[in-house]
Design brief:
Shape: globular
Oligomer: single chain
Radius of gyration: 14 Å
Helix content: 10-25%
Number of helices: 1
Largest sheet: 5 strands, antiparallel
């Protein structure tokens, strides 16, 4: 199991991404938990389930949003910062998927 933290511009961890995907596989399956509490030294202290999914070699993906990841699709966003964090997470996951698969996106599928 691999764990990666995504940080905001102030150096605080915003999301914890866990995955068992390995180089050479044709897909990247992950869980992304939002950090909801930190210790004084910016160390994550509490997490909440946010997103579960798979990103495949051809850029197709399956994403399940929600607190319980039970396909209800619920995501609570509280202000523009949460929308920006959400978009940043999707970009981070897309790039991490191809890094972990050891592949490059197909032509025209690079994040720009």
């Amino acid at each position: 199991m691999s764990e990666t933290l995504m940080f905001d511009e102030r150096g605080y961890p915003k999301f914890r991404i866990t995955s068992e995907s390995k180089p050479g596989e044709l897909y990247f399956t992950f869980d992304a938990d939002s950090v909801v509490a930190w210790e004084d030294d910016k160390k994550p202290a509490e997490f909440e389930k946010y997103l579960h999914g798979t990103i495949k070699w051809d850029s197709c993906s399956h994403l399940y949003f929600g607190i319980d990841n039970d396909n209800d699709g619920y995501v609570h966003m509280c202000g523009v910062g949460d929308f920006q964090d959400h978009i940043a997470l999707l970009k981070f996951l897309y790039e991490l998927a191809f890094e972990r698969m050891g592949k490059k996106p197909l032509d025209g599928e690079e994040w720009s």
